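Weekly modeling sync, notes
Attendees: S.R. (lead), two postdocs, one rotation student

Agenda item 3: backlog of single-chain predictions. S.R. asked that every request posted to the team notebook include the full sequence so nobody has to chase files. The rotation student volunteered to paste the first one in as an example of the format we agreed on. Action items at the bottom.

Example entry:
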Amino acid sequence: MSGPFDPLGSSGSGFEVYPEALRRATEDVFHAAGRLRDFANADIEGLRLGVHDVGMLGEQAGIIEAFNGMITELQEKSVRGFDRLFKLGDAMDKAADYYDAQDEDYYKRLRDLEKGGG
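Predicted structure, as returned to the notebook:
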C-alpha cells in the first residue's frame, strides 16, 4: 500500500472534494437531524389521545391504544433517523477535516517545491 490512507477510498479516482461544500452539506444534514428530533420530541407528543377524545366506544374499540402506539412508533423511528443523520453528519464533518488537512499538506509541498526551485 503506497501513499496516505484515504478514508473515502478516492485516491486516484479523478474527482475533487471541496471541503467547504462538504461542510455546507454537513450543516444541512445536521439541520435535518434536528428537525427529526423536534418532530419526535415536540411536534407529535401532544397528539396522544385520551378517553375524552374518542369517547367510551372509541376506548372499547381500542382506538386510543392503537393511535398512541402509532405515535410512539413514529417517535422511535424519528429518534433512530435522528441518530443516523447525526452520525452521517459527523462522518461528513470528519471527511471535510481530512480533506482540509490534505489540501494544507499539498499546499505546503507546493510551497516547498517553489522555494527549492526558485
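Discussion: group reviewed the output briefly. DSSP finds three helices and no strands in the chain.
Action items: rotation student to repeat for the remaining queue; S.R. to check formatting next week.
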